[in-house]
Queue: 2 jobs
Job 1
Amino acid sequence: MSAVRDKWFWGIVTLLIACIPCFPVVDVLLHIGKDSDGTWQHLSETVLFGYLTNTLILAVSVSALTLIIGVGGAWLVTMCDFPGRKCLSVSLLLPLAIPTYITAYAAADLLQFAGPVQTFLRDTFSWTKGDYWFPEVRSLYGAICVLSFGLYPYVYLAGRAAFQDQPKDIFDSVKVLGHGPWSGFYRISLPMAWPAIAAGMLLVVMETLAEFGAVEYCAVDTFSTGIYRTWMSHGSVTAAAQLSACLIGIVLIFQFCDSLLRGRKRFHSLRTIRKSGPIYRLTGSKAIAAVILTSIPVVFGFLLPLLVFAHKTFTHGDQRTIELVTTFGKNSLIVGVIASTVAVILAFASVYAVRLRPNPISQFANKVSGLGYSIPGSVIAVGCLAPFFWFEELVQSISIYAFDYDPGFWITGTILALILGYQCRFLAISLGFISAGITRVPLSLDQASRSLGNGSLMTLFRVHYPLLKPTLIYTGILVFVDILKELPITLILQPFNFQTLAVRVHQLASDERLEEASTGVLAIITAGLISVIFLTRFTDRSHR
């Protein structure tokens, strides 16, 4: 392949990959101003203000709570030494293994009026319903707590990495000046770690705006649930797309606020002076308080959901449930393996093209390809419908004219629609991990391969693929688990008579059949644990 053809080939590759997450957003924006046959007017007069209010309150409250939990936990396990610190530093990541909608199921089952907690209180103190007050899980405040305990690891992970890179001599100077741990945290450590923490908070906000299962189960009307109901109940793609455009606007507002919060702050530390080990030693009551504070998120975000569904599985599970899990688990496995493999291949090609030809066009296309994760799944699903229909009609017209053959609906209503929808949402994850991996491969290896007569494709397969194989496997597993847990895209784009494990669990939980859903929930949690283990290994290796 000549240099000119090589340049054009990889440039076209990056542009085509960048089109995948762009089509849904462009289609959503094109629906602004279209006639929805009165559906939009009805929504604006009845529920639109509630969608906006609940969405904003949820996003702001969850980001504030995750900031407190995540930064506090990261500071304690990184800067302070107390009993159980090493175990808790890993355990604080475990809530990532459990989808937030599963945490909502467990919390509602545990704390509802007929649940074990309130039943115990009534039996112990001889109370009746009107004798005491108990918080309602299925409410806006319940959704805030559930999402906070499920999403804080994003802030915790970013904060811990930032605190680990802070040099020890700065804190020695703080001690010499007579300042204690709190002053060192507030004046030195937190400002230095703020850019990374703000990035983690932005991920929390994006996940909160995209959340469907937990807020729907907690009976909170947000844009995410409204988009699904408008499409499924009203059957109006136009009105659903217009709601999606509003949600995209909210996403852009939060991204702008994030850029203002971070500003131009950048902090660098020399590896030779980086701290090794904790700075402060906690004893007595302070150590006990640190253990309790760092254990609470793990208990409510991981242990309680795990124990609730483990108990239901072993006490109420039956053969019928296992058969259902086997059927829907197979569907999840098929879709997840195909979609995660495609995502890794596309991301690998895009990252390699930028490395090979680092021009402004390829770099811009690579950044555009990674924007899908900031777009809620419901928006992506609705935005995919019209492009799919248009492309099917185009192929249908050409096929009938040229071959007198009608291929029918070969994208919508098939697994292919799901796979393409997943690429729009999760391609960003693959891009992030593979980009981090390929930067560790020296450019001299590319030059050596070229000097031996290998072209760009041969260099890709003979040099980069063997070196990045572990990273590609890690990335594929992470994307697979995220696809396994995905709800909005699957609910809207799933084929007829084809359900994944997550959709089946959601349907059973919505029908208050948690015992039947428990085995499927444990399967999802197990897959999530595998993801967390690989994520921990990847981050530790990257830090070293």
Job 2
Amino acid sequence: HRKNMTRDEFLGHVWKWKSESGGNINQQLRRLGSSCDWSREKFTLGDPENSDDNMSAAVTKAFVDMYNKGLIYRDKRLVNWDPHFQTAISDLEVENIEKDGSFWHFKYPLEGGETYTYIEKDDEGNILLSEVRDYISIATTRPETMLGDGAVAVHPDDKRYASIIGKKVKLPISNRLIPIISDEYPDPDFGSGAVKITGAHDFNDYEVAKRHNIPLYSLMDERGVMVDSEFMPKKYVGMDRFQARKEVVKDIEEEGCLLLIEDKKVMQPFGDRSGVIIEPMLTDQWFVAADKLSKNAINKVNNGSIKFVPDNWKKTYDHWMNDIQPWCISRQLWWGHRIPAWYATDGSIFVGKTLDEVKMQAFNKYGTNIELKQDPDVLDTWFSSGLWPFSTLGWPDKSKDLIKYYPGNILVTGFDIIFFWVARMMMLGMHFMKKSPFKEVYVHALVRDSKGNKMSKSKGNVVNPLVLMDQYGTDTIRFSLTALATQGRDIKLAEDRIVGYRNFITKIHNASKFLEMNGCVLDKEFDIKMIQKPISLW
């Protein structure tokens, strides 16, 4: 594990690995026949042995400039948290997979034994159920998060609960009282229509909690282990989240508040690399105010300055961009561009291109030299990748290459990173260069395995094109991909398809050789319309 060594030792290992394996993609592209200008190859993290490499300087300048303009800020917000790697991760790295799971239905008793009349009606208004209750029924797939509930929410139009909005319920096993609030978020037709609001551990609940100033209770540490706090019952402290789930259910049942356990298929978020369930966690992170950057990028597509091919991907782009959230750009890892921020002992933040620059800022504030510690986090890889169209051409210097080649004409990319890379490049290009980095986005299919699954190193279903080319020849692989690349989404790369195209290529090759052996040459004056003999027509 990286935490068993120093940061410098870890980085030494990774740079060694990069030097050994970093050329693999380059060799695959060359072997496939890509006609790139290989002298311009760049690595987003820069080259530590080349003082002329400006990639790192470009990233630092972009961060500092955006921070000074209020476009980058530090905040405590909910993020996707990977308890295995102990870092925030992006939506792109989260796979939602349907698994066997359960809905646990619990009673949340009303304060002081109060009661209300609960009436359930069918679509035609006929009464199906009418009873006096002293509780609200709540269903959850994650009982351990109940320990952090801040409220119970019901829809303002849900007449079943109208008489008790504003009252309080007792949170089982915690002996905390939490309010009943009304909000548009709960769906009256789903379950009981009442939902628990756990603002520190659910993205939708977080928004509700912010709207109603509901307290946020963080339950876990970076490993997914229950933490010690004034609201956490002592018996759960130190338990893994899934062990705590079992104990919470058992204790609620013993308290008489378990109504029902319903076995159901449940969509669960998994880390695509770690394979563990992702936990929404309230943590201090760095964010980009993406809503401020997105406006120009949206307008460029809407006014036709930038086209998507096929054009149906414009809808996907619009949907993402118009509902854009703050972009979390900090990662609790060691491999990446280090965040150029330093902290004083009182928590003050100083941001600058160099340590000397921030030391001067601190001196101006305190009137003396003080100890500063650099933020240990690194930047999300999409931040440096978003600068790619101009950082690779010499920016922030106004180089000849930058003037000549920016903006480019066309970007060719897969649909799965339209938001994560295409949109980032457009937002950052518009901000720093005042022009979009390209005029057209050609969206190609993804190459998947024979079963239609996305290729992934962790799944072990990756096909190495070098091996395929050794087996079947480069022409065959190129032709297979070309033939399969319709304007649909995916290419299922099955070996029997490759064999079929190899046989086709062989026929073309043999026919060509037959013509050569018989002295056939191309006559540029020949008119194909003059062919009349049946065999020649065939």
